[in-house]
Amino acid sequence: MDGRKVMLLTGASRGIGHATVKRFAREGWRIITCSRHPFPEQCPWGGGREDHIQVDLGDPAATIEAIAEIKSRLDGRLHALVNNAGISPKGPGGSRLNTIDTDLRSWGQVFHVNFFASIVLARGLKDELSAAKGAVVNVTSIAGSRVHPFAGAAYATSKAALKALTREMAHDFGPMGVRVNAIAPGEIETSILSPGTEKIVEGLPQRRLGQPREVADVIWFLCSDASSYVTGTEIEVNGGQHV
Q1: What is the pLDDT of residues 162-207, one digit of tens each?
Q2: Strand partners of residue 138
Q3: pLDDT tens digit sequence for 86-117
Q4: Which of 52, 58, 112, 151 has a CA 20 to 30 Å removed from the CA of 64?
Q5: 229: phi > 0 → left, psi -120 to 50 → alpha, else beta; which?
Q6: Is residue 133 left, alpha or beta, with left meaning phi > 0 and alpha meaning psi from -120 to 50?
Q7: What is the DSSP letter of 226?
Q8: Which positions fall inside the Ketoreductase domain (predicted)?
Q9: Long-range CB pairs of 86-89, under 8 A, 24+ apart, other chains included
Q10: So what CATH class is 6-237?
Q11: Which DSSP state fits 210?
């Protein structure tokens, strides 16, 4: 085992996850990724293929089973866990699924990926996180605090639950030396954006979309010593959209 710091990241293949991989790789970290997809051919960092674990986080049993595989890749220490994977199902033509339209099975799948996987991984790897005095970052959303024109009800409520989970985890993991925080991105220029987002951008104080690297920089801050006394908080990364 080498002496590099190690991060476990879910949802690494695109957008915020992809930018986060590049940010931490630039700092010399080793990154272990989890995704339901195979490792992408267009890999943004060296050695990524060997550190990719294919697992469907929507399947509770598969997520629990993956813990042993992840542990086998570690030398007993995990410096950062970034729970970034998220799904947001849409209706016909990309329409928003509200509380009335969303199928119960879709609610379950969304919560397994967006919410339950985060605590399953953190709890399963608590000894390794504690040994490294590591950090957990849960990626929530501005949709977790208000009705959003595009994000569906299941997605929004899963992100609100993840914010509450961040508070509870910070309380429980703190005595182990592990900090737990969340970031809530707004309109970030990724493939998950819906048509019509430009109308939202017109009303933002900064009048532009956020870039994935700008979110990755905040994740980096929360996993670095620069935030050593910050835990149990959610940082808004949205160009002032929340005001």
Answers
A1: 999 999 999 999 999 999 999 999 878 766 566 666 667 776 776 7
A2: 83, 182
A3: 887 788 877 888 889 888 898 999 999 999 99
A4: 151
A5: alpha
A6: left
A7: G
A8: 5-215
A9: 86/11, 86/113, 86/114, 86/139, 86/141, 86/155, 86/158, 86/159, 87/58, 87/113, 87/114, 87/155, 88/151, 88/152, 88/155, 88/192, 89/152, 89/154, 89/155
A10: alpha beta
A11: B
Query: Two tokens at 31?
Result: 């990154």
Secondary structure of residue 200 in the 3-state scheme: helix
Active-site annotation holder among 111, 115, 155, 173: 155
User: Is 229 considered catalytic here?
Assistant: no
List the chain domain ranges. Answer: 6-237
**DSSP calls for 14-25:** SHHHHHHHHHHH
Which residue type does 53 have?
I
* Cα(16)–Cα(212) distance, integer angstroms: 5
CB 82 within 8 A of CB 7: yes
